[in-house]
Write a structure and sequence with these properties.
The structure is a single chain. This protein has 344 residues and is an alpha+beta fold. The chain is built from 5 helices and 23 strands. The chain has 2 domains: 164 residues, no CATH class; 118 residues, Cyclophilin. The protein is 15% helix and 28% strand. The longest helix is centred in the C-terminal third of the chain and has 20 residues.
Length: 344
Amino acid sequence: MTPGFKVLSPGLHTTVQDLGRVGYQALGVPVSGALDPLTFRLANALVGNAEGAAALEILLSGPSFEIIADRVRVAVAGAGASLVIDRGARRVPAWHSTTLSRGETFEIALGHRSASAYLAVEGGIAVPLILGSAATYVRAGLGGFHGRALQFGDIVPIALDRAAERTEKRLLLPLSTTDAHPVRVVLGPQQDLFTDDAVTALLEAEFRISQHADRMGMRLDGPHLRHRSGWDIVSDAIATGAIQVPGSGQPIVLLADHQTTGGYPKIATVISADLPVIGRRQPGDAVRFAAVSVEEAEQAAHEAERMLAARIASFAPVPTHSGDIDLNSLYVGNLISGVVTASE
């Protein structure tokens, strides 16, 4: 029997993703891939995979699985997420690898701090490559597991029936979960089609992510961003992170499954270093923007890569002795809720 995961419950939207289908936008094929490529890459690193190995992206609510393989090494990555094994008999926090055996079941519990999480398995998810990628583009039924999100009863194939015998890893420099800093953007390419007040509002006002958000785009509720004269332009190419503004005046941040061309003006573009931040946000979250130059965006991209390498270098063995206390597990399990005085 092919090794894999049997889907006991699929979660809200669980798909196979990698780092995207690069090089086909001229043919109308979106890049797709992980909404939060930084967390995705860390998940793969924890189980010893190449950074672009196919893994599962989990949005808003987590799936559950049964192991159909002799020995499987997995890791879940995402703020506040965890693996709940055999209905709570064991719990493994995010940013830790662990090994499971045939017949064991596990659920991915998502925390409230992130809309997305990633499940990596040693060897990767074993689906066919379409145009060089395992990424799922659901709107076209392309790639991943039969071109769709997982469903009850699916058997998700994995590459290895038996994972290597080695020490498990954990991340010692977890990602920041604060939403305090603004998302950085480069203004344009059609900034001149908006009023000065619209550009000021983009950079000074607070927006909220609406319920109309998916892997294609994230509509924001906030001040009306006014165009100078109309909102129809000759369709041109769209980059991931572009902020287009239709006639409603409400901006839309275009994400991994965005269309390849569009006819609405784009007031700004989220820089690549902050795309993972956007990928973690969920409906109701606040978003603020700050403008940077192209040179500053390039510096931020280099710094993001440096920090990723530092985090991977920070991996340490997971404690195995009963006398060791894993403080991170205690915090994730919410076992420490506060301090009170004797008088209380």
